[in-house]
Design brief:
It is built from 21 helices and 2 strands. The chain is an all-alpha fold. It has a two-stranded antiparallel ribbon with strand order 1-2.
Length: 452
């Protein structure tokens, strides 16, 4: 049960997930509520729920297999960009730094009510309250740990990432998965399978450092005795895993964009191989989109073009494609942060705060609204709410690759002291610049560096 909740609540969550995937789930919530709670009875309901019929009016087409995904996208038309070797090192370091900065910026807010709000207000309003109480609005630096808003019960987390304390990138799942992605790329290049991802996880990543979809797939992979490869893969990523379209695969995709800088199709394919271990449908698409977005940010001179290119690797018939397209329109139409956040929460607040779609939309909106400015972009992503550290990290990767390390303002870089901690052997601690150099080394092995 992913170590996350009890079986009854997990099956309630499965009803939501099945409904979002376009299955008819009428009556299941009532049956779960009336159930005695015995594991046998609950599992009978679960098995029946998983066999629910598709809604004939469901308008989306969302395959899981890579060939089917690419057939519904424009990805096959993409060609690798040429990249100037004189700028790659700086841009790679910028991507690594940007991810660390954005993650550290968002970590203090990754708790209720900042992420998911309340019945009284959206999460972004609580973030605003904290910052105004700290005389730090509009935000242009790391989050202060002290605010008069604490008098109303608001409380931050992750003290090591507060403005007053920060001296390195503290361990975080966004950083651990970035490092794991580097280990995978160093060992397998782009040619790896979901099973090899699982093996690397079991070798380097303790189960206690995973949650939701990742933890359930981790457990399923250890416990199953299924031998047929296709059946086994489906079981690992779906059995008792109602989190299979949540943000986990999306936050694991950055490294595949790094080592495939300028080659968005290869980045998306590599991200697929990673995501297919734990996720389905939009959970996979979020990873592919993010990897492609970061890849093209190394070589494009327009954020809008970066997003347009990244959209071309996912099915135009998917919820994610539709949602991101809507988020772009919102970000181009608004004139203030308040209007942006309010519109995003109104449109995408129906999703769980750690779902792929709403968080991908927050990232895209921040990039559009930020217009290439590092500070405005990362702070917009974090101050929107939802998964604050993940979105800060993802957007940080994109804008860091886009402008390069030298262009990132010093007050963001210097507090990290070029150091990250990950709890992954060999990366605890390690220089961020050393990690960047290792990504460049993998890139050089995969691609011929040529001047554009």
């Amino acid at each position: 049960m992913a170590g996350w909740t009890d079986l009854k609540q997990l099956i309630f969550q499965e009803v939501i997930q099945m409904s979002e995937e376009g299955f008819i789930t009428d009556g299941f919530n009532e049956r779960i509520s009336a159930c005695s709670g015995s594991e046998r009875d609950l599992m009978e309901i679960y098995i029946e729920l998983r066999e629910a019929k598709s809604d004939p009016d469901y308008k989306y087409i969302e395959p899981d297999e890579l060939s089917d995904i690419l057939a519904l996208s424009g990805a096959t038309l993409l060609q690798p960009f040429q990249i100037d070797p004189a700028v790659l090192d700086d841009k790679m370091y910028g991507a690594w730094l940007g991810r660390c900065i954005g993650c550290a910026l968002g970590k203090p807010f990754e708790t209720d009510p900042f992420v998911c709000g309340t019945s009284e207000a959206a999460g972004w309003r609580y973030i605003r309250n904290w910052l105004e109480g700290a005389n730090a609005y509009p935000l242009n630096d790391y989050v202060p740990g002290n605010s008069s808003a604490s008098d109303s019960g608001l409380k931050l987390v992750c003290e090591a990432s507060h403005k007053e304390n920060i001296s390195f990138m503290e361990t975080d799942d966004d950083i651990r998965y970035l490092v794991i992605g580097l280990l995978i790329a160093e060992k397998y290049d782009n040619d790896f399978t979901p099973e090899q991802v699982m093996e690397i996880w079991h070798q380097y990543l303790p189960a206690r450092q995973c949650c939701t979809a990742e933890l359930q797939a981790y457990i399923n992979g250890l416990c199953t005795e299924i031998t047929d490869l296709k059946t086994k893969r489906e079981y690992i990523r779906t059995h008792l895993n109602p989190y299979r379209e949540w943000i986990g695969a999306q936050i694991r995709a950055d490294q595949y964009g790094y080592v495939n800088a300028g080659d968005p199709l290869s980045a998306a394919k590599a991200a697929y191989n990673d995501a297919a271990f734990t996720h389905v449908k939009n959970g996979i698409y979020g990873a592919m989109f993010t990897a492609a977005l970061i890849s093209v940010a190394f070589v494009e001179d327009s954020i809008d073009k970066c997003i347009e290119t990244a959209l071309s690797v996912i099915p135009a018939s998917s919820r994610l494609y539709e949602d991101i397209s809507c988020a772009i329109q919102i970000a181009k139409a608004v004139s203030s942060e308040d209007e942006l956040y309010g519109s995003l929460w109104k449109e995408f607040g129906r999703y769980d705060w750690v779902h792929t779609n709403n968080n991908a939309c927050a990232c895209v909106a921040a990039l559009v609204f930020g217009k290439g400015d590092f500070t405005r972009t990362v702070t917009t992503a974090v101050c929107c709410g939802w998964d604050t550290d993940c979105n800060g990290a993802t957007v940080g990767s994109v804008i860091g690759a886009f402008i390069g390390a030298k262009a990132i303002p010093g007050h963001w870089k210097e507090p990290l002291n070029d150091t990250l901690y990950s709890f992954i052997p060999g990366f605890h601690p390690i220089s961020i610049n050393e990690c960047s150099g290792r990504s460049v080394k993998v890139f050089n092995k995969l691609h011929t560096r040529s001047i554009s």
